[in-house]
Design a protein that fits this description.
single chain, mainly alpha
Length: about 260
């Protein structure tokens, strides 16, 4: 329609009308570009809000994992130290108590790192959409710091496998079922953390295996040095979580952590 009118005005040399038509065309193009830009900006803003919310949700899951590490490894360390005290004669315990404490000293907090949103941001090049600089800087620091590289624990898990070498399979299964952390515990369950390992635990039907394992623990010269290492490395692991606790405390809503 506009093109036909423009041609007509050119043929009739109606320059004023031609100028008006050109202004209308240019204004239409400019407005079209502006509307497109507004829509793109609105979509980018909405996408940024979704990604930011997802990143915060992932980091809140990681905040729980950090708290879990702190509680868990403090209790692993305590169990290792109690087993040491029993083996060195500073406390008197029955065979079952010694076996449970020695078993709990083997345990590893194995919840995986939640990094789905961060991985997507990096892979798609949309990391700049997160406008909260402090949040993004903290996320980069956390996710790019390898958990294994920062861990103080023996990567070969020497004590853990030495314990397994001494224990009967059926007893290990009973210990894992009754004396490890609850298998139904999920990410975000803060109420479970204060007694994640330190809860009453009984093993039925394994009296012979318990007596045999307790004897092997007492007789094996490698156990005490490995337990001392385990008690120390897990205490350091627990205490080192203060850095990540502080980092998350600066960028996420306050936690209601059980005492």
């Amino acid at each position: 329609m506009i093109l036909s009118r423009l041609i007509h005005h050119l043929k009739t040399q109606n320059w004023t009308a031609v100028a008006i038509e050109f202004v209308i065309v240019i204004a239409g193009v400019v407005i079209g570009f502006q509307v497109t830009a507004w829509n793109s900006e609105r979509e980018a803003h909405a996408r940024a809000e979704i990604l930011t919310a997802r990143l915060i949700e992932d980091l809140q899951a990681e905040q729980w994992r950090v708290e879990g590490n702190a509680y868990y490894y403090a209790q692993v360390s305590d169990n290792a130290q109690r087993a040491i005290d029993a083996l060195e004669g500073r406390r008197s315990v029955d065979d079952e108590t010694l076996v449970i404490e020695a078993f709990r000293a083997t345990q590893i907090f194995s919840f995986p790192i939640i990094r789905t949103t961060y991985t997507e941001l990096v892979a798609t090049g949309t990391i700049d959409l997160v406008a909260d600089d402090a949040l993004m800087i903290a996320a980069v620091e956390y996710y790019e710091s390898g958990a294994d590289d920062l861990s103080f624990q023996d990567r070969d898990r020497t004590y853990r496998f030495t314990f397994f070498q001494l224990a009967d399979r059926s007893l290990v299964d009973a210990l894992a079922s009754n004396c490890a952390e609850p298998r139904t515990m999920g990410i975000g369950d803060y109420a479970a953390l204060p007694e994640i390992l330190d809860f009453p635990c009984d093993i039925d039907g394994q009296d012979g295996a318990i007596t045999a394992l307790a004897g092997r623990l007492r007789d094996n010269p490698a156990i005490l040095p490995l337990l001392r290492q385990r008690a120390t490395e897990t205490l350091i692991e627990s205490q080192s979580q203060i850095y990540w606790r502080t980092l998350f405390g600066q960028i996420l809503p306050p936690l209601a952590v059980p005492e």
